[in-house]
Design goal:
Length: 61
């Protein structure tokens, strides 16, 4: 079992959509923070697509 890969998959698949036209900024920020924590801990080496979310908000600060 690869728990790190499972967690990375779950976090990257979080859906910030409230409805068809509105996204939750709080969920996007939470997802961003979790993805960077996983990246910094080295848990995204087998799942590099997780950090490739193409949203302006996902740029590391």
């Amino acid at each position: 079992m690869n728990t790190e890969l499972e967690v990375a998959t779950i976090v990257s698949n979080m859906n910030p959509g409230i409805n068809a036209t509105t996204d939750s900024e709080e969920v996007m920020l939470l997802q961003q923070a979790l993805l960077w924590m996983l990246y910094d801990a080295g848990h995204l080496t087998k799942y590099p697509m997780a950090i490739g979310i193409d949203q302006p908000m996902y740029k590391r600060m």
